[in-house]
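From the shared-data thread, chain only:
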Amino acid sequence: MSVQPPQPLYCANHPTVETGLRCNNCEKPICPKCAVLTPTGYRCKDCVRIQQKVYDTAVWFDYPLAFSVAAILAFAGSYIASYMGFFTLFIAPIAGVIAAEAVRFVIRRRRSPRLFLIAAAGAALGSLPLLLIGLIGAALMGGQMGGLLSLVWQGLYAFMVTSSFYYRLRGINIR
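Structure, as tokens:
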């Protein structure tokens, strides 16, 4: 009695790519380019899109609310960071995560593909006013070393709080 080797599987989207991976939802063969890692395993992009549409629950007022809360908290954090100097490197990511969780709480964990982008834009714009005021002051005063160093910390704060805020809220993205 001879045992036949299993037939090779080919990706449903790329018929020339051999694969051993299947979507854990629909069992469709997928290659690593088509696979999306979810908390429950690999899924095809179609199954992930369908699942994400189910969770699109944001209402119209969530967008301005998320933007405003993110901007206010990022501005408050930038004010505190202006006194922290080097410790801004440690405070900015924590401030981004706290602001992201506050936004989630205020919008009652509703979701939308664009909601996290709008909230991240609020965090970015909220962290910029003190940096811009410092830049204008440095331009008018001739740029003293202490003033320039505080601008570096403000710039790092703006970058780090926005990026940590964005990554905390973004969820699973299909590329």
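The chain has two domains: 9-54, 62-169.
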